[in-house]
Design brief:
It is built from 18 helices and 23 strands. The chain is of the alpha+beta class and about 500 residues long. The protein binds iron/sulfur cluster.
Length: about 500
Amino acid sequence: MNDNIMKKNELTERIDSIQEGWLPEERFREECGVFGVSGVEQAAELVFFGLYSLQHRGQESAGIVSSDGKRVCSYKGLGLVSDVLTSDALRGLSGQLAIGHNRYSTTGRTTLENTQPLLVTYQGGRLAIAHNGNLVNVCELKAKMETQGSIFQTTMDSEIIVHLIARSEASTIEEKLADALSQIRGAYALIAMTETKLIGVSDPFGFRPISIGKLPSGYCLASETCAFDIIGGKYVRPVEAGEMVIVEGESIRYLNALKSTSKAHCIFELIYFSRPDSIVFTESVDKVRRNLGRTLAQEAPAEADIVIAVPDSSNSAALGFAEGSGLPFELGLIRNHYVGRTFIDPVQRVRDQVVKVKFNPVRENLSGKRVVVVDDSIVRGTTSRKLIRLIRDAGAREVHFRVGSPPITNSCFYGIDTPSREELIASSHTVGDISEFLGVDSLAYLSMEGLRSCVKKPDDFCYACFGGCYPVPVDTDGDKLALERNSSRVDPVR
Ligand code: SF4
């Protein structure tokens, strides 16, 4: 059998295996959203709105912990922010200090005990933490602690942090937290809360975003700045890699808590995860995505009539491509925003309809046209393939697929839910193979140089999923780790 036939058979098997079951989510999945407020009456109400803005970062569970300086209250549940945190729930969360969390599980099952913020009582008092990220040396730490008698109540890697804090012999909570985090490897943007303090920390590489916002009488901390806008907060700056920010009432202090030698911000926050109205790692997300599209238009122009986006995450990049190419931007696909968790386990007859449930083509705009389709990334290629069929069925004469990032060849181990390496189509197939699999007239990805040229400080980013250069060493059997993580996930359709 020659190589081409073999490759074709592999691709056919890929389609068959995927069509037999539920269509896996085509995108990388966001991790979690964290938010905290200090110095404001009924702080929990502001946290509710902050979490609402960060809903795209996690839809499995939501929770808030608040404090009035003496009494600490908590309310958590499985589901969306507006379903879990009702008016009655918020009335019970009094005080000027509150933190909240939206969860999408990258480790641990989706159960009530695995919801955050985690609230514990230890010898230093009450402590709540909300964590976004993934810790890579959890197994060894957990095994060691269990041997020494520790009992874990959840399967979340975040619980390790509270155990390490409780065991620390340092005197203040800031020192205990720094002591605990110095033993951990991995990615985290963390918000912690005692009865009187709000604390934000970024890991030494600054993988996950966390920013500081100013309120008239206090401060807030959030994964993304879009959460400040909704409550009238003013963006101050990001929490730097390895930095700890401590807010008490209306005052704020900054500590260089963890040694940071180089930065590795997640580039995918700018490509796909974060909202375009956010500033992340000091970059405007919308501006970076437009740069991606413009650069892609220069690198890989197409003879075409219109440019369309795969909504919503590719809208800015498609606008950039249209600006860069001089082609008109058109609405080619409409996304249904109300596809919810009812489709997690659909009956057989709707399984093949998933893409049609999520996207509908605008026939009048596509019919007879040579179309450039801009998408932010290709993961397995299965959804892209179905989308292209939809676009062709709507009458497009030619389809030229342009991707606003380089080929994804490796899994992420820093808090992003990704398939195993074998499932990533670009890990084992050339651009030509993928083009044939998708059924397009042409396919081009943004180059690595092109991607780097679109941000202000390219050396401050992690690009590991585009080549496997991991800034923090991962388990040598990393793909096995990814498979284990993913085996416990559910598949909400966003
Ligand atoms: Fe982000 Fe990819 Fe690095 Fe993970 S591997 S942190 S998704 S850039």
